[in-house]
Amino acid sequence: MTQNLERSPFWTDEEWTLTQSFLDQGYVIARTESPDTLERIRTHVAKAACGHLGLDIPADAGKFLDDIAAHVDPSTLNDLRLAVINALRSADWFRPAYLALARQSLQTLVGNELAMQRGIGLSVQLPQDDSSLLPIHADVWDGDSSFEVVQWVPLVDCFGTKTMYIVPPSEDRAVQKTMHKMHDQSAEDLYNAVAEKAVFLDLKFGDILLFSQTLMHGNRINVEDTTRWSMNCRFKSIMSPYAQKKLGEFFEPITIRGATRIGLDYSLPEDFDE
Amino acid sequence: MSNRSGYRGYIGSRPYFGERAAQHVQNLVIRDYCQRNGHPYLLSATEYAMNGCYMMLEEVFRELPRLEGIVLYSIFMLPRNRDRRRRVYDTVLSSGAVMAGALENLVIRNEQDIRVVEDIWVIKLLTETRTDKIVV
């Protein structure tokens, strides 16, 4: 997306590699930095789903989530989704745990003074269900700032049409440049214009995806045999510009550093006579 | 029996006439409208942020044959261009659906309703002021 970025001597090798990859592809996929935390989250999700459905806690949470279509259909799916979201949002350990999944990568790509989306999103996409589709979009078109990164966390293996797609930077920018010519066409027409270039991201449980939501992305009908479960949350540098998703109503500062705290609270001595 | 089911919400990501409401607030207004009128609410489509862009509205039009109607957060989310607004009305009504503005509690079912909404629109355009140009 940003060509010819010169390496500053202040970068470590690890930071530089991650940053270059992010700029080249618009996303990075890395193994979670905290596998136990991810397992704890998945177990919590499975328990919440079981509680809602009146089922016994499964021995294999991943298989249970993969095969959830045995217990719900599209008409009852949203109630399940809301029950699980409520269970996640009411757990005070959950949001710090979510950050821990890729904390170092986020600090490298976004900064170490972070604002975090207050309500983490949960997607559950049953096989053949056309009611949970997310048409092609870039979050910046929906009121997000271009300074944000999405942390996308699969709770099951995601592949084929069970996963999300993203449009690579070069194709994305070319289409966005001429998108105004499609003003009387639909989002589906837009998808058709980029479909051949869209990359369906293959992620195993334990992988974490960080992507720039300035890139077009979305999902299609899941024609695989199992159900997609994934979580998403946006992070940005506290001091970077905000768009329609404001600090307070949508974002919360989570890692204000000491010097910034002092700066926020400090004011110069006043009331000197001229 | 009709194959149509539900009212699709339609919210925005940009200010309209300089006014902005958070998306969850827009959804609350639409949900409330649907509840008061006994309409099954379908999760809202979110229009893109670019001025003059109505691609998500066009996307909703694709599913019009399956919908009872569209509920806009506000009628002022319609295109500013009169001909484009007319095309929106025609597309919705010719498909057999209806369109409503939740904030204004206005519904468009026929030509008479369109006239009411258009009167409001024209007056709004005529009286549009920019506070940064007001001198006191």
Descriptive notes:
The complex is a heterodimer of chains A (274) and B (136). In chain A, 34% of the residues are buried. Chain A is built from nine helices and ten strands. With 274 residues, chain A is an alpha+beta fold. Helices cover 34% and strands 16% of the residues of chain A. Chain B is globular. The termini of chain B are far apart. Chains A and B meet through helix 8 of A and helix 2 of B.
Q: Roughly what fraction of the amino acids of chain A lie in strands?
A: 15-25%
Count interface residues per chain for the largest interface: A-B, 22 and 20 residues
Count the beta strands of chain A. 10
Q: Determine the oligomeric state from the structure.
A: heterodimer
Main β sheet profile of chain A: 7 strands, antiparallel
Shape of chain B: globular
The total count of helices of chain B amounts to 4
Radius of gyration of chain B: 15 Å
- Total strands of chain B: 5
Number of helices of chain A: 9
Radius of gyration of chain A: 20 Å
H-E string of chain A: HEHHHHHEEEEHHEEEEEH
Summarize the structure.
The complex is a heterodimer of chains A (274) and B (136). With 274 residues, chain A is α+β, with helices and mostly antiparallel strands.
